[in-house]
Structure formats: C-alpha cells, structure tokens
# Entry
Amino acid sequence: MRSSSGCSGRRGFFARLMDSGPALPTDGIFCSVCGYCMPCPYGVDIPGIFSLYNDAVDAKDSCGRKFLKTYEETIPYLRQANHCIECGICLSQCPMSVDIPKEMRRIDELVESFKVKELMK
Ligand code: SF4
Ligand code: SF4
# Structure
C-alpha cells in the first residue's frame, strides 16, 4: 500500500523536475510551408505543425503553454506529430532539406512533456 507521504514526495519530485523544464527551444524549423511534402500517407499535417511551432518560437513562448493549447485546438488529433511513423517518404520532397521525421519526433516529445507539465500543476 502506498503511503500518502510517498505520493506527495514523488509528486514534489516531479513538480520540481517540471519547474525546471521543459521549455520550447529557441530555434525554429527551416520550413517555408510550401506543402511539397504533402500529403503525408499517414495523415500528418507537416506544414501546419511546423508553422505552429515556428510561430511559438517567434513569440518566445518559453513555457509552451500557448503552443500546446493552439496545437490541441487547431491540429486534429489524427494529423498530429505522434502519427508520424518515420517512413521517410516526405524527405525527398522537401526543398529545404528539413529532417521531417526527426522534427516530428522532437515536437511530439515536446508536446508530451508539456502535457505532463500541465498535469503536474
Ligand atoms: S516520415 Fe512521417 S511525416 Fe513524413 S511521410 Fe512518413 S509518416 Fe508522414
Ligand atoms: S516540403 Fe519542407 S519546406 Fe515545404 S512544407 Fe514540407 S517541410 Fe516545409
């Protein structure tokens, strides 16, 4: 059986962890929103996600709160970064040589960490 002190101690640990991060990186993705990489056969809204991400970086949304809210509201669930299976089909289509699957994984990890951060409040 878990003691309440154990739970609060664990919660305190995660709260401290989340206080110190995560933060939105300060560097954007070199995407011109040309759409040549579309359609993604797995439904990922590549330019939409990168555009939102770059807007958040430009707005210096360091805590990621606004980014997370806008992401959840404007990118339909089935088109979000977590649906990228890293097939690589889009890679050869991008004139800006964006490593799309790598960026999708990075954004998805960021989104998940922001969700945990919100839950721990
Ligand atoms: S690598 Fe990801 S984003 Fe690119 S086509 Fe495949 S599933 Fe879609
Ligand atoms: S092809 Fe490259 S630059 Fe164009 S929208 Fe897709 S990721 Fe962005």
